[in-house]
Predict the 3D structure of the following.
Amino acid sequence: MDAFLGKATRIEIDWTARWTSTSPYQPERIHTVPNSLTHLNYEPYTWREFRRNFTQEYLEADFSLERRYLNQLLCGMHMRAQSLFLPMESAPLAEMCRIPWPNIAHFSLCGRYSRNSEYVLPELLAQILPRLSSLCVRASPRNTLPRPPILGPSMTSEPITLPDLRSLTVAYPDPADAIFTIRAPRLTHLSLSDQPRHYFSRRTPQYVPEWCAAPILSASECLGILRRMETPLLESIELVYQADSAEDDLLRQLATYPRLEIVELHRYREHDPDPVPYTHVVTALSAISYLRRLYLNLDFQEMPPVHDERVRDYTWNARAWVDFRNARAHEFLTILQVCPRFEYLALLDPKALCAIWVEYRPEWSRVHDWLFDSGVAYLLRSYVMHVNPTRHTDVNGTPQRWS
């Protein structure tokens, strides 16, 4: 092990790894002397906490051993580290605060907040944030603090300048967080997201642990965050929000970004009986001058009920839902003809424990090769729906290719 750590520059741990059952190696034998690692990537199975509800697994032993291993590795690589992808449950954040990270550029945390992490994380980020080019915090909050600020409350009216930050992802963000007072002149990607996906807790609440909160933003809060940030070069954005009276202003705000090309919206109804103004939403988005790709989850009332056992099989869809989805795709593509650079539309098809993006490509798209994006959380499969080769014909709902 010592010889390996002296030569290796990258460690990637598979998401299926179980630390307590796969290796008898003691973490104390991983010396804290400097190693040659620059990249450490460990993002565990997204649903391991939720799986415990089914299997009654006791995961605290896993978390404790993970923390000991990670602490030893991180203490030895802190001077060289460039990229860290860590689980929030077991990342030794307090220990990381005590040592410098002069070369860190990419930092990601996933999983769930622990009782200590929500207080220690702001201290660590205050140290490393000026050097980061990408920051991702996708963690499930606890009911005791539904929206933990990742940088702390804003204490000054003077914005923080982060000249190198290119990508920022925050799940269940706190609108008052100081991270949103930044001036990021080179930021190209922004995600105000959820973890795990809100449609999971909304459609299968019986499987979600009691400690887990899902406080998605309102449209008003989303709008407030976007107006506070200075992001002139934004090219892609993901928003998860609940509709309210500010939704129209929020959609108009998206059209003010001159370079925006990729939009992913997860829009949820304010009240369950509310109709979904899908035509209005897509029409507003068509005002984005350089729109190329549009991902939409509009929380349609017509989605098949998840309690139907057949829906758990992602290869099966209720015929009525497929017909409705295809009809909406045809309608949306007709509206999006005004976007000269438009490539494809993707509609979300949520299942019990995963989701599928169904892509619709019009013949008038300027793209000739099939393109698939892997940046969507929990995307297990995606398949393309081919649109008949004119702008105004019906959608042919036949799977074309799997990614």
Summary: The chain has a mean pLDDT of 79. The chain is about 25% helix and 25% strand. The CA atoms of residues 199 and 350 lie 7 Å apart.
